[in-house]
Amino acid sequence: MFKQSDVEATKYNDYKYLIYTRVSSDKDSQKESVPNQIDICRYWLEQNNYEFNEKSVLIDEDKSGTLFLERTAMQLILQKARNWEIKMVLFKSIHRLARDLKDALEIKEVLLGHGVRVVTIEEGYDSYVEGKNDMKFEMFSMFAAQYPKSLSVSISSALAAKVRIGEHIGKIPYGYDHIDQKLVIKEDEANVIRQIYKWYNEEGFGFKKITHLLNKGVQEGKILPPRSGRAWQVTTVQRIIKNPTFCGTFILNQYTSIKVDGRKKQIRNPEEKWIVFEDHHPAIVKKEDWKLANSKKKVNMKTKTTPWNEFRGLLKCGKCGSNMVIIQSWKKKVDGTKTHWRYLKCSAYRRSGKNGCDNHVPIRYEEFRRFIVERLLETGKKFRLILTIH
């Protein structure tokens, strides 16, 4: 028997059939357990005069039926089908094959298109018997696809009920403890949150300077580090400023997961779909302080738009390997005009200062771009283009 970690390096040339099993998590009920699925498939094989071989079993463990591309064993089955290496694939049920109608139909199309017999035992579907009659497969695939959607609605309702009685769901934010299912202020961390808002609202400091002050305080033993144990980062400070949790507000249904190209992607819902619970838990900062920090005037004053970086994803820091990003700077002249500069900076240093990476001599973006263009032109002169007319 082989698990998903073994399948890529395993050859099945000696076996013309495969058994596919899948469990979404280690909490799956007994009837959906891997041994149960194997036992049902084994009985079908024996009843149909096939010799069972445990090496023909492929397992996707802890893999959702809605995530097609992340299921390693299933991808191997499709690859072997395209290579004409198998003649039959056995599933306990269509629920194990897929929980998405589009995925189920695509899997069946690939298998049948390469001469592979598809059998799902619980539904009694056998492509060898059904022929071109796809109605049974499509109907049961629709039922399988509807199950996770119905389950999601039930779970969302249960979570909303918990939040209404003051319980917290999800990750415990910095500054809080989780006691009796509710958020309780953790004073030593809460003081860091209050200091961040003070620096931002009263002192007028930006995210980058606050990050440097936090990391300096950590080194001096005056400020607690983030829970990750690593250095404070600009993005962490930004999230703290924007998060209404710290003023006692909890927002449910702010994000949702959708499937894009076979993978889950989290998107933000429109505000009219949010369920907002004011005074849900003790506040670390006052509501007016949070509103001030997130007011349009304050945000516009702090926001700088980073210009397009032609080297995005291509240029790396030689010290830590992080991406190089553009940092803007300017100087006001006597006549009121401004002189602008653009520098390339290590993103790890930008986020966490010297705690993230070493500083380096400033690299002017325009000068670096000119250098690259000149090298490309010099290299281009070494090549000859031959035009062939047919």
Shape: extended
Order of helix and strand elements from N to C terminus: EHEHEHEHHEEHHEEHHHEEEEHHEEHEH
Helix content: 25-40%
CATH C-level category of the largest domain? Alpha Beta
Q: What oligomeric state do the depicted chains represent?
A: single chain
Radius of gyration: 29 Å
Q: Summarize model confidence as the mean pLDDT.
A: 81
Cα separation of the termini: 57 Å
> In the CATH hierarchy, what is the superfamily of the largest domain?
Resolvase, N-terminal catalytic domain
How is the biggest beta sheet arranged?
6 strands, mixed
Outline the low-pLDDT stretches: 2-14
Q: Look at the helices and sheets and give the structural class.
A: alpha/beta
As for the number of domains, it is 3
Give the neighbour order of strands across the main sheet. Answer: 1-3-2-4-5-6
CATH architecture of the largest domain: 3-Layer(aba) Sandwich
> What is the count of helical runs?
14
